[in-house]
Amino acid sequence: STPAAIASALAGGARRGLLIKGGAALETLGHVTAVAFDKTGTLTEGRPRVVDVVAIDGGEDEALAKAAAVERGSSHPLGAAILDAAQARGLAVPNAFGGSAAPGKGVTARLMSGFVTVGSPRQAAEKGLLSASAAERVATLESEGKTVVAVSEGERLIGLVAMQDTLRPDAAAALARLKALGLRAIMLTGDNARAAAAIAGELGVEHRAELLPDAKLAAIAELGRDGPVAMVGDGVNDAPALAAASVGVAMGGGTDVALETADAALLSNRVSGVADLVTLSRATLSNIH
Ligand code: ADP
Ligand code: MG
């Protein structure tokens, strides 16, 4: 292979906002057979907004304020949405102590009033906290494409918060381009099955939902049996998945962790940058071989 052709491709990519860490990453991109995408922050804007607060035991504002207290230390986009909503309502957010996050599940902290957990309804159901009527509310909201979190205090479910995110404007077209390049595209998400199905349906993409972090890694390993896999993420708790793929691609607005772990980065937030990377790599390989 000619180092000059590779250097020129890397430089040409960089001018278009496609950062590739080196010749090996460039070459792998040309051989990938599947591209896996994280949902939140990658195929969507990653700025979910609170659209419904459902009071279950106590008031709406109480549930939202307590949820915000627990999320104050969280870097998760759902946490930011809850904090914004509490602020928009002018709520006094109580102090919280000793917060801890369980990736893909939720966060817990101690408030003066007791231990409060904000997390997936599935976790709440596993702890026996979700009544039949609460489960029905969750199902309705989720089938509208919303992500719902359960707010519980001790052994009581006190409320539900539903959030909605926006698709990136070029996501559907970018996925279609990858398919036209002969690649399998798949969305991997920790989000609930109903919302994931609604979003995947709009995008016309294959998907797997309710994946805990380890299950995302297993899904990437499984795709890897058919050939090299690219994983595209924004680095908010998907750094392990970026590292596990044959080639990890970080979206531009992503975290420093993502940029460190990834083999390539898209400086613009265009999903179609992934197809640009593959096309650039294939063109370079065909000039070399
Ligand atoms: P994604 O794959 O869309 O990035 P995550 O794996 O980050 O999703 O999270 C999966 C689910 O875990 C969320 O939909 C939510 O139910 C729950 N969860 C994770 N982190 C938090 C948090 N900070 N606050 C509330 N819920 C959370
Ligand atoms: Mg994520």
TrEMBL record:
Location in the cell reads: Cell membrane; Membrane
Domain of life assignment: Bacteria
Query: What is stated as this protein's family in its record?
Result: Belongs to the cation transport ATPase (P-type) (TC 3.A.3) family. Type IB subfamily.
The protein in question is named P-type Zn(2+) transporter
Full-protein residues shown: 375 to 663 of 714
